[in-house]
Amino acid sequence: MENNMPQRLSVSSSPHAHSGESTAVIMQDVLIALIPAAIMSVIYFGWQALMLIVLCAATCVLTEYICRRVMKRPQTIGDFSAAVTGVLLAFNLPPTINPIYAVLGSVFAIVVVKQMFGGIGMNFVNPALAARIFLLISFSQDMSEWSRPFFYLSSNSGTDVVSAATPLAQMNSGEPTFTLMELFIGMRGGCLGETCIIALLLGGIYLLLRRVITLEIPLSFIGTVAVIALIGGQNPLWHIMSGGVVLGAIFMATDYTTSPTTRSGKIIYGIGCGVITMTIRLFGSLPEGVSYSIVLMNILTPHIETLTHSRPFGTEVSRNAK
After folding, report:
1. Are the CB atoms for 203 and 249 separated by under 8 Å?
2. pLDDT digit string (tens) for 62-82?
3. Any residues with CB less than 8 A from the CB of 275 and at least 6 apart, and which?
């Protein structure tokens, strides 16, 4: 006998297809992709680099655990997003920075930038970069002291051995001394995880193969930096491999929560990051602008989404049409 009862249907918002990848799986892929750069940072800057990475990651995870308990919300430390924030923050710090500052930055990233806005998926700027800017404003001198690669192997503990000028600082002084090969392999001063370009590219290739990120944002970001450098009469490879362009373009500008989802939006977003970065580098008082550029474009992401959102299928029919 045929059943004439109406069939019950589930009503829910899109998307209706699931890729099978959870937040935890994606964050694990990001952590795996960061391993080559982490290994090279330890090789170049010694045990202090490893200590900073572990300290920042552990502090972020512990802070998130405490926040979720205090706010009486479900625990989210199992999605590994707090660990990723901690590693990325460590990658944006000088190797010899006071560990207390690293702890303060980690707490700021989780409490102020992430959990106060509702947790993962709700923060409107990248927590690691916001924390780096907070530390730059609060401890500008300590955040601008760089170390020479392998300084820890020297028996001389003087500042002439430890301190080093970054390529961007040398460029502003008009006396660049680094070769392109030295920049590529990371034989220069700089933040913990930004120096070794080949390690960052290996991590980026892994994320592309895993389909965690796409090419639109990294290519448009790095390409814009190269084009503006050419227009300004400077070496584009020098600008790409100096500072945090590669680290920012691959690992931070591509953050799901704070970047556009549409293809055209990603391109606009990446171009904006490149334009702001080079504007600060060429005309600003600061030698580097990657952190500021990404955070500013994070703020503009909702507007970019609105301008580039997908139109519904079909055509709009006028009410007066007969």
Report:
1. no
2. 999 999 999 999 999 999 999
3. 224, 228, 293
CA of 5: how far to CAs of 1, 2, 242, in Å?
A: 12, 9, 68
pLDDT at 163 (0 to 100)? 58
Q: 3-state DSSP call for residue 147?
A: strand
Q: Would you state the pLDDT for residue 146?
A: 83
Name the residue among 61, 59, 65 with its Cα closest to residue 105: 59
Which residue in 71, 157, 173 sits closest to 122, CA to CA?
Answer: 71
Please tell me whether the overall predicted TM-score, pTM, comes out greater than 0.85 for this model.
yes
Q: Are 294 and 276 in contact (CB under 8 A)?
A: no
Residue whose C-alpha is closest to residue 292's, from 15, 92, 63, 120? 92
Q: How far is CA 102 from the centre of its chain?
A: 17
Closest to 45 measured CA to CA, from 175, 208, 194, 171: 194
User: 47 to each of 44, 85, 192, 257, how far by Cα in Å?
Assistant: 10, 20, 12, 33
Residue bearing tokens 């503009």 = 300
CB-count burial class (<10 Å; 0-12, 13-18, 19+) for 66:
middle
H helix or E strand, kind and range, residue 295: helix 290-308
Q: What is the DSSP letter of 116?
A: G
DSSP 64-76: HHHHHHHTT----
